[in-house]
Specification:
The complex is a heterodimer of chains A (about 325) and B (about 425). Chain A has 6 helices and 9 strands. Chain A has about 325 residues and is an alpha+beta fold. In chain A, strands 2-1-9-8-7 form a 5-stranded mixed sheet. In chain A, strands 3, 4, 5 and 6 form a 4-stranded antiparallel sheet that branches. Chain A starts with a helix and ends in an 11-residue tail after the last strand. Chain B is of the alpha/beta class and about 425 residues long. Chain B has 3 domains: about 30 residues; about 100 residues, no CATH class; about 240 residues, Rossmann fold (3-Layer(aba) Sandwich), CATH 3.40.50. Chain B is about 40% helix and about 20% strand. In chain B, the strands form 5 sheets. In chain B, strands 4, 5, 8, 9, 10, 11 and 14 form a 7-stranded parallel sheet that branches. In chain B, helix 5 runs parallel beside helix 9 and helix 6 packs parallel to helix 7. The chains are: A alpha+beta (about 325), B alpha/beta (about 425). The interface between A and B is large, with 60 and 60 residues.
Chain lengths: ~325, ~425
């Protein structure tokens, strides 16, 4: 009887020990399993985080490229060629929105490509494409107003690319990378200038000043130089207090030779040399510089610089707008 | 009784053996099972490790992707700007004014990781050289060989330095009113274009006073002559090399001349040649203001001088009057250059022939020990947590900088 008891006790002990060990094994399995899953999740999360980081870096590249291009395009007068004439021999040759956008997109794409080539992505991350960058014009209706507050930024998008991350998980992204180039008043200044030049106001102001001082005993070239400065001051009023407009008279002689620049072969109208017209006949070749001191923008050389629009104006001055010769009897 | 006792003993032994067997088998199973799984502590460590690195990464992302309130730009962009501009304070224009990114970043990092529990170091971008050098060259006729030596040998020296990880940028400033020079039998002017100096980022040439942008801002000390290296150096130091001085570089100024600032030292003393001394003082003053070390090179005072006759202009130099000329430059010039060097932390070198100019510049750069620091250091330095034996987690974040196509790295560290 006592032997049986001992056997039963042994069996109970055995079962108890087996149960405890089973429980331990289960817990060990469960714990390590859960921990493994958690680690797996974290690592997969890190893969996505890496991709997000790469996206953010590339979006910064988009923004730097766009800012850098805006400085360059503005300094070239809104074009991809180094010197853009907004008036050539009296004819308006204002760059269209399409031309400005093309220049901005073309140059910013070039900058973007240098960033893509230079990127040292994290291990397992590859970046392909995204060398095609577009900027968007907020539009004349928003920008051609004296208050710039609605036109101090513009979107820029890089397309045709792919980011791939391989690690504990795989992630890829093929959609466009979009950012807002801000603050940057590139399009505000462009549309304000375009608004003035579309109506030929700059020449109206020059000619008006020449007419105003037509009979003064000063040389023609002085009258024209003064008129350019007066028009420049008037142009300044089209912008806010952060903008500085300067006009450089590149042809102090102010004669018809001023029109002889490679923008276009000038054909001087008959009216300019009509003998029956009195007063100032001449030409002008002016570089207008519009500097926006409100915001500094990151330049391709690394420094922070104000946006400067430079445009060239070549035109005959006065001409047919002069009044007839005063006759003394 | 004894039989019963014996049976009991046998049963007990049997049960004991059985229990040992059970225990052995169970342990064997547990051992086998555990050996196929990562250790519990290792698993726990790995989980903690993964969690902490994710925490660091997420924390840094939160800070970097958040917007700086004054500029409206993400802090990541601001840091990229600062990394190139070389200042924690960025001038964002009249409307926004200046933004101190260190304050913004510190505030947010403190909130995420705790005050005194993080550190950030942002590397110099590749664009920033180790050395920036301005060389002001006397352009009188006797200097021809020395300047040609610079033009011919310095590019290779700079290239070798770069390969050795010591990037240097050099701008040669030519003094105005240059003389003629005989190079390879041709008559040329000692100027950037005349001698065909390269126009590269790391080696370029400018003419002092040649254009408004290079006109010296000093009121009374524009370099006036081809030998006025004192004022010329003051101008060059004020402008810096092309693109200006950058923070974190070693700034070196080198006047290269075989005569005093106002010409020959023959018969000259400090008192009788006061205008020359004023020119020297202007250089010392500007060097001090701009933290530039001056290493004057007293050129070998003899050289081959061309005296082109009007009728011989544009003809082969061999047809021109040509002779070897030695200027006075052994006493006062050396004294003045030594003063210039000693007052600016540099050294004066006395060249013994006209072919050693570029090599001497190599010696100057090579002899300087550079201890580069991180471009931007924010938060607590790592010495403190290291001395306390803290476990430091780190993460490197790639940052684009405003210089086209370039990146740098922000090293972020955090500890508990």
């Amino acid at each position: 009887m006592r032997g049986v008891d001992i056997t039963v006790i042994g069996l109970v002990v055995f079962l108890g020990a087996a149960a405890i060990f089973s429980w331990v094994i289960y817990q060990v399995n469960l714990g390590t399993g859960r921990a493994g899953e958690t680690i797996g999740d974290i690592r997969t999360g890190q893969t996505f985080a890496k991709m997000e980081n790469t996206k953010r870096v590339l979006i910064e590249d988009v923004l730097f490229s766009t800012h850098q291009a805006s400085l360059l395009v503005a300094s070239q007068g809104g074009s991809y060629v180094p010197q853009r004439y907004w008036m050539c021999a009296g004819q308006l040759t204002i760059p269209t929105e399409a031309e400005v956008l093309f220049a901005l997109s073309n140059i910013s794409s070039n900058f973007m490509r240098t960033y893509i080539e230079g990127i040292n992505a994290e291990k397992g991350t590859t970046v392909e494409g995204y060398g095609c960058l577009y900027a968007y014009d907020p539009g004349q209706s928003v920008c051609d107003v004296k208050d710039s507050s609605e036109c101090e930024s513009f979107p820029a998008t890089a397309t045709k690319g792919k980011i791939s991350v391989k690690g504990d998980g795989e992630a890829s992204y093929q959609d466009p990378l979009q950012g807002e180039a801000a603050p940057n008043r590139f399009f505000w200044i462009y549309h304000r200038l375009k608004g003035v030049f579309d109506k030929n106001l700059f020449m109206v102001w020059v000619n008006a000043d020449v007419r105003e001082h037509c009979t003064e005993p000063t040389l023609n070239n002085v009258k024209i130089a003064n008129a350019i400065q007066a028009a420049c001051e008037r142009l300044q009023e089209e912008f806010d207090g952060y903008v500085e407009v300067t006009c450089t008279n590149l042809c102090p002689a102010a004669d018809m030779d001023c029109l002889n620049v490679p923008c276009q072969a000038p054909s001087v109208p008959e009216a300019c040399t009509t003998a029956s017209m009195q007063g100032v006949h001449g030409g002008m070749n002016v570089e207008i510089s519009v500097k926006d001191m409100k915001y500094n923008i990151p330049a391709a050389g690394g420094s922070m610089e104000p946006l400067v629009w430079n445009l060239m104006v070549v035109s005959e001055v006065a001409g047919v707008e002069h009044r007839p010769v005063d006759t003394v009897k | 009784m004894s039989v019963s006792h014996g049976r009991m003993k046998a049963q007990f032994s049997e049960m004991l053996a059985f229990m040992f067997l059970v225990i052995f088998v169970t342990f064997f199973i547990v051992f086998i099972r555990l050996s196929t799984l990562p250790g519990l502590s290792a698993t726990l460590n790995a989980a903690v490790e993964a969690h902490e690195s994710k925490y660091l990464m997420s924390g840094v992302n939160v800070v970097f992707f958040s917007t700086e309130p004054k500029s409206g730009k993400p802090l990541m962009e601001m840091l990229g700007l600062a990394a190139y501009v070389g200042n924690k304070t960025i001038d964002m224009g009249r409307y926004i004014g200046t933004v101190d990114i260190s304050e913004e970043i510190a505030k947010r990092m403190d909130a995420v990781f705790g005050k005194g529990k993080w550190s950030m170091e942002v590397d110099f971008p590749e664009t920033v050289p180790e050395f920036q050098i301005v060389i002001v060259a006397d352009t009188s006729g006797s200097m021809c060989n020395d300047i040609v030596d610079l033009r011919d040998k310095l590019p290779e020296i700079l290239s070798n330095l770069k390969k050795a990880g010591r990037k240097a940028e050099v701008t040669v400033y030519m003094l105005p009113s240059p003389s003629g020079c005989c190079v390879d039998g041709e008559e040329v002017t000692i100027s950037c274009t005349g001698l065909g100096f390269p126009d590269k980022e790391e080696f370029n040439c400018e003419t002092v006073n040649s254009a408004e942008k290079l006109r010296c801002q000093l009121q009374s000390s524009n370099a006036q002559t081809s030998e006025d290296w004192g004022n010329g150096l003051a101008c060059a130091v004020q402008h810096g090399p092309r693109g200006g001085w950058k923070d974190g570089t070693i700034r070196i100024g080198i006047p290269l001349s075989d005569e005093l600032s106002l010409g020959s030292e023959c018969g000259c003393t400090d008192a009788s040649c006061k205008s020359g001394l004023d020119s020297l003082q202007a250089a010392i003053l500007e060097a001090g203001k701009n933290d530039v070390k001056i290493f004057p090179l007293r050129a070998y005072p003899c050289g081959t001088v061309c005296y082109p006759a009007p009728t011989c202009a544009n003809q082969q130099c061999s047809e021109l009057n040509k002779r070897t000329y030695c200027s006075c430059g052994d006493t006062l010039l050396i004294d003045w250059m030594t003063r210039l060097a000693s007052q600016t932390g540099g050294t004066m070198y006395n060249l013994t022939d006209s072919g050693g100019t570029a090599e001497k510049i190599n010696d100057i750069v090579s002899s300087m020990q550079v201890e580069r620091i991180s471009y931007l250091q924010l938060g607590t330095t790592l010495d403190l947590p290291r001395s306390q034996g803290k476990r430091i987690r780190s993460w490197d974040f790639t940052l684009p900088v405003s210089y086209s196509g370039k990146y740098t790295v922000a090293h972020v560290y955090a500890w508990q």
